[in-house]
Design goal:
5-stranded mixed β-sheet, single chain, 5 helices, disordered N terminus
Length: 194
C-alpha cells in the first residue's frame, strides 16, 4: 500500500522537469530528413509523470536526447539497423531499419513503476492507433533540441551503467513476438517521405 501511494505521489509530483542536456527550440523547425540520412522523432505527448525524464540512447550507447513530458525532439541517423533504448526506472527498446530521406516517429510513453515512472518506446506508423493521433500530438508538444556533446559526456562517466542498460535492452528485444514485436519495430517503409 505504501509503495503504491509513493509511486502515485512521484508520478503526480512536478508539473515538469528540465534537463541540462535539452533546450527548448526558440523557433519551430520544419521536419526534413537529409537526403543521405533518416530523421527520427521521439515524441512524449503525455504529461503523465511530468517530473520524470528519460535518456534515449542508440545501440552503441550514444546519447540522442532526454525525453521530457509533452515534448519532442528529432535526431538525424545513419540509414540501416538501429536499436533505440529508453533508460528510466526500467529499460525498453525499439528496433528500426531506417532508410535515407525518411522521417520516423517513436512514442515515448510513461506508465506506473514501482518507485518512479517507467518509459516505453512504441512505433508510430500507419495502421496503429497512434498514427491518427500524431499530428495532434506534435501540435500540443514543445520541440526541444538535444545538447549531444554534454549528454554524451554525462554517459561517458557512467559506462558501466550504460553497458548494463544496453544488455537489458538487447535481452528485452530478443523476447518480442507477435503484437509486441509489431509495436516495437519500424521498417524502412514506415518512414514518411523519401
Amino acid at each position: 500500500m505504501y509503495r503504491t501511494l509513493l509511486s502515485l505521489a512521484v508520478v503526480a509530483a512536478g508539473c515538469g522537469v528540465s534537463s541540462p542536456y535539452m533546450r527548448p527550440s526558440e523557433t519551430p523547425h520544419a521536419l526534413r530528413a537529409p537526403a543521405d540520412q533518416a530523421l527520427v522523432v521521439f515524441i512524449r505527448p503525455s504529461g503523465l509523470a511530468g517530473g520524470v525524464g528519460a535518456n534515449i540512447l542508440d545501440e552503441q550507447g550514444r546519447f540522442l536526447g532526454d525525453s521530457l513530458a509533452s515534448t519532442w525532439f528529432a535526431v538525424p541517423m545513419t540509414p540501416g539497423r538501429h536499436l533505440f533504448v529508453v533508460w528510466a526506472e526500467n529499460t525498453d527498446a525499439l528496433s528500426a531499419e531506417l532508410a535515407p530521406g525518411r522521417i520516423y516517429y517513436i512514442e515515448v510513453a510513461p506508465s506506473m513503476g514501482a518507485f518512479s515512472a517507467q518509459m516505453h518506446l512504441y512505433a508510430i506508423k500507419a495502421g496503429r492507433k497512434s498514427w491518427d493521433k500524431l499530428q495532434d500530438w506534435m501540435g500540443r508538444s514543445q520541440e526541444f533540441i538535444p545538447d549531444v556533446a554534454a549528454g554524451q559526456s554525462n554517459l561517458d562517466r557512467r559506462q558501466k551503467d550504460v553497458a548494463e542498460r544496453l544488455r537489458r535492452a538487447n535481452e528485452h528485444a530478443g523476447n518480442w513476438s507477435g503484437e509486441k514485436l509489431a509495436e516495437h519495430t519500424l521498417a524502412p517503409n514506415d518512414g514518411v517521405g523519401g
